[in-house]
Amino acid sequence: MSEPPGRTHGAADGAGGAKQSREELGVMNGFAGLRVLALESRRAPELAKLIKTYGGQPIVAPAIREVALESNKEALAFAAGLLAGDFDMVIFLTGVGARALLGFVETSYRREEYIAALQRVKIVARGPKPVAALRELAVTPSITVPEPNTWREILRALDEAGNSAVELRLRGARGARVTRVPVYRWALPEDLAPLRAAVKALAGGEIDVALFTTGVQVAHLFQVAAEMHLKESVRHGFHHTLVASIGPTTSEELLRRGIRADLEPSHPKMGFLVKETAEQAAELLRRKRLRSASA
Question: pTM for this one?
Answer without folding.
Answer: 0.76
